[in-house]
Amino acid sequence: MVRQTAPVERELETIDIDVNVGPQHPATHGVFRMVISVDGEVVTDLDPVIGYMHRGNEKLPENLDYRQTIGFHDRTDYLAQFNTEHCWVETVEKLGGMKPPERAEYIRVILAELNRITSHLMFMGAFGTDVGLFGTSFMYAFRDRELIQEFFEEITGERMMYNYFRPGGVAWDVPEDFTERCSRILDHIRKGIGDIEGLLLHNEVVLARTRGLSPVTPEQGINWGLSGPLLRATGLPHDLRRAEPYSIYDRFDFDIPTGTHGDVYDRLVVRLEEMKQSVRIIEQALKQMPEGPIMAEGMKRILRVPAGEVYGRVESPRGEYGVYLVSNGSEKPYRHKVRAASFCNLSALREMCVGHYVSDVIIILGSIDIVLGEVDR
Amino acid sequence: MLGLAKAIQTTVRAALRRPVTVKYPMEKKELSHRTRGFPVLLWDFEKDEPFCTGCQVCARYCPVDCITVTMTDNPKFAEGKSKRKKTVDRFFLDYARCMRCDICVEVCNFSAIVMNNTWDGIELSRFDRQDLVMDKDALLRQSRTGRLGDPFREPMGVAHSGWAPKAEGEEEAGEAAAAAEGGEG
Amino acid sequence: MAIVALLLPVSVILLTWLERKVMGRLQQRLGPMHVGPWGLLQGVADTVKLLTKEDVRPTSADRWTFELAPFVIVVPVVMAVVALPFTADILVRNMALGLFYILAVSGLSIVGFVMAGWGSDNKYALLGGVRAGAQLISYEVPLILTVVGVAMLGQTLNLAQIVEFQDDTPWVVYQPLGFLIFVIAGLAELYRQPFDIPVAESEVVGGATVEYSGIRWSMFQMGEFVSLVLISILASLIFLGGWIWPFNSDLPVWGQALLMGGKTFAFIIFFMWTRGSLPRLRIDQLMALCWQILLPFTLLQIVINGLALVYEWPDWTLTLMSGGAAAVLVVGIYRVARRSGALNQSPAGHRVGSVL
After folding, report:
1. Chain B residues within 8 A of A204 when measuring between CB atoms
2. Residues A123-135: tens digit of each pLDDT
């Protein structure tokens, strides 16, 4: 019996190991699970598993009326609550044919833009932690966020789940010192943005880690369904506040920051510049805000919306947040579907991550800026 | 290295500022007037009974179904001491389910429930989840003992749906409206 | 010997407190404040907590590898600290081959890391352990070579003698390049930011140490802090003039201890400060930094030293050449990092990033 000898040149066989970046992980921004197939340190495949935070946010409002649903939208995207509330009340107003008074519109815009600033601050903080700063960026971001949240508490009563916008206007009027308080907060915010910029944006290590990482072309961005800062970082100046102006955004003068390569560094820069533009919008709105009623005339005690369907969308800090509302004429929505920005952005994670290192996957996931409440609803 | 130097300069400057820590629980920051704690019931010191009449509007409008209310005849009305025909018999509010949306405050016809804007309405840790189901006495205690202070009620109710707060003499009309609504919802 | 055995744990406990305070300060918050005055007893509270924790061991872990790994990390470092003279008189054992012994022995703790990574039977631990092995071994080379440069200057490996040679000028003046490389390589040896990829908290959640709990985990921490003390004291001794500069060797013992303590403290604060301010590098960038940038400059430093010694050039030529090379190194790292889009490879290729 001849014993077969192994051929001299035989390639070393290796297996890809599956690393489970589990639902409990310091870096996944929520209960999100990824199964990454890794060849050494290079990612060959990525399988996202979602659903750990599914709470029935689309079914439950079928038993609640239009005012009770506002709180549910707060909890869908729990970092940009005013933007989601804005979307919901705008959609109901579209279908119901109501128009909120001027003062209410200005209050809504100011609060929504302040919320955009808080959301981007949270992103900067979390991103610094992903890149490796031991919580410093987090603390700076939260120091400024705390100022804004205290301000929100003075207006609405809550620091996070405001339940303040109503179909037809806002719930109650803002306190008298609103304008001065807001201006002072804006001064602090400008300094805080400068802090974060100095800490993160010019840092050589951050540049070395994020520049050129997972570049996205505009065509890829559109094909994958990206929206928000991700799409603007690829170079497309697509912002719903400019493309399809809702509320009173057509009265303000602001720029749309865009990137060039669509990589992680560009997303960082785009969000920082958006914060500065939000400050600009708030300044203009504070100057223009009129006195007047805060609730539309002739609102009935029980709000009934005529039968029909409508899709309303806003530019939330994560992208395009939309609500598809079908009504059958009663006081409860018949079908309430939420188009969440993070869900659509997250679906492109696999294409963005394959071929990069494991350390980069965490950074790319951080740069998409997901909120699991939105993804799972 | 400039970027790294800038990062270190930023942290050095931050280190020289005053720390922003509030040493809770030794120091507590001041809550604003509109702070939304958990809901409590109000006690009418003139008539020596709760404002609440048990009309169940709050229970119907609560998005998470955390309120259970029953109504009973008011003995003081029979004695002629009060104008409220009915009063609340049992009132359970589950703080563990409440999402502090303050819709119950907005819809209450008698301004009987408010959000507690003191620290007592926020510091509510318990060892057992059942201890968070507050009954009528626990909910009234805050107001009866005078610890409630000045709750935020001012433009409440004017804003939504064109409803205005009722004046004193219209309580019976409010009850009639509530009873009519009871057949609707 | 007994002093070392007593002082080390106490200093480790105090260093954990100091680290939390320093990080808190530069994040504009207070650190621990409750336990003891200014939170000084926080380290004691943490130690008591860790001692009373359940000792968890995964059933599929390789038993001896898993359990011995913390010891293999801590023991060599403590052995190395034994050979460090703190002042002229406060020392345990000053050896003629002191420098050589310290570096040789402290290199043994790398094995402990790899043992921890393999023995934990956990993919995260494996990733962390492998990365740690690669990083620590690579950065030993520039570290040792800079120390070789110092030894060339002093023609001796005896630490006390090296300090005595520095009584008029500390050797950081003659060897700025060596100092810079020593600090960078030292940061990498301590696996602190910006080189803490083996124990990256937001990625591999503790790397090789992820499966350890209780007192075993605290032994990893002890190893880290004792290494910190080791590198700081070593840097103060060979570059900053130890207990002699700027005074002369007639200082009383407490003066020497104070001077030495001050220099060590400065280094420790510097290491803790960079931990809070700088993000971390990826493993391939780290390795590229070591082999493609630091190593050539280290060899350059040795060549400079050799030239100056053989041709008996005056000492200021050393400063000039070494300082010039240090400036080139700084500028080089700056430009490479600025241009570093090329460090991230395209999805097609799997090449390790190159900086050149």
Report:
1. 1-4
2. 988 888 888 777 7
